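Ticket reopened. Same input as before:
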Amino acid sequence: MIEAENIEDQNGLRPDGRRALELRQIRVKMGVFGQADGSAYIEQGNTKILVTVYGPHQPRGSTGRNTSNISKGIVNCQYSMAVFSLSSGERKRKPRGDRKSQERSLQLKHAMEAIIHLEIYPRSQIDIYVEALQVDGSEYCASVNGATLALIDAGIPIKNYAIGCTVTLINNPSLEDEDNTLEKGVLDANYVEECTPGVTLSVVALPNNDSTSKDGLIVVAQGAGQRLHLSQFESLKARVLYGCQDIRSILDHAVREYLTEQSLPSLFHVALN
Amino acid sequence: MAETVLSSGEKIFILHGIDADFRNDGRRRCEYRSMEIETKLMPQTHGSARLHIGNTDILVGIKVELDVPHADKPNEGKLEFFVDCSATATPAFEGKGGDDLATEISNVLTAAYQTRNAFDLKTLCILPHKKCWKIYVDVLILQCGGNLFDAVGIAVKAALNSTEIPKITAATLDGGEPDIELSDDSYDCIQLDTSNYPIIITLCKIGDNYIVDPTLEEEMCSTSSIVMSMLPNGKISSVVKLGYGSIQFNTFTKMLQMGEIIGLRLNKTLMDVLKEENQFGRQRRIFGFLK
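Engineering reply: fixed in the latest deploy. New output:
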């Protein structure tokens, strides 16, 4: 269905006209729902994700019974995809419960546990529910970004933004002798690019505020597709951290804007930067 | 539907308000909250609509597929409803928690659209015995602030109204095998004739009176409610009673009469609004959840 020629180099541009390190347009809305403790909606290109956060509240259900660790809060994540979310035309049979969503839920949980100050919420539970409304590549990363925003909206203290970004190495032998900027991996792949022969790495990092001091910490990395040679890993890592840095500054701007809008008039001196 | 617990004092306050025909938010008994509808907001579907009423938020996506007709109904297409209560509405819906409510809603929808006066499945047939369209109506409940049934009914009708089925240019039988050609122009589509599609009205009995469009708090004061689906011509295609309370026959008839009047008005308003939105054409800006 997807032809390899589509991916071919067009003066170093990708099929949708982006450069290798260019992200898709990110649009954000925080506080979409009134009833949840925190909620956020994020669009990365055509990938559209809704996240709501409930809590912290008393643990309940199966997670509550597991009282092995009461000194820390419990994070409970559920990733579900709307049955009409797939861009490729077919319809999904079940919104959740399949292996892919369960894996995503677990990885989302790992990422969120890394940023929430769980030690200040003993004996409590924080629920994070992700609903993918439209899926067009990089949906796990978009949901991590959305979950971070929802946590901020809920007022839950976090250590840093958890930022997800994918990097895709497009294996295309015809590219070798030409301008090979695409060869070293492209950021924020859409569905067409994810389906190409090659490897896609989804990375969740905690990028630092000033890019000069440190690269940032990688919390979750997940690869899909073909095998990846270790020698290429370093350059991919550098690229993906660059992407995370970019996304972070976009989200940070959106958060500051939202909080200034929502704040009391007495707080108006809080400047946007 | 964040957990709301009402004390008996609060319940009595709501009850007295309804007795006086002046509800907590200033509405009368037969008034709806204002609604927001947007259609065609999901480009990957054949038709979609989002409805926002009070705190209730519904998203409907419609996908159309080619299928083989049922052996006992060779001239008819298929229409399937699927409701998903997302955990974003309330943590209680997590996992399989929302399945009961989802089944209840999809059963009401199926009953509402089952009659031939409402939805003629024959229009979905392409080649008898061989090919037909199958319409999947997928309802996603994102927030739940009371009056789910009405909201779902309106959203489904709006979504079906926006549905565009690809046009078939040629359908022939080639040696017993169906051969179907779709139009090359993706804008060349057929729209469904929604003039007879039902909407759903819930009448919620609180105390001695009955109200439409209850909020979550009002729903908690009610012991029984009637969910009726009504065609635009005033015919009732299904009636379901919910809740454990019982209803006198006289009250029941009165409730149906009130539902009929409200249903006709609601339907007309909805169709007018959808027509108005349609006039903006394809250049209309899509807001989605960003507004």
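The longest helix of chain B spans residues 249-278. Chain B has a mean pLDDT of 90. Please confirm and we'll close it.
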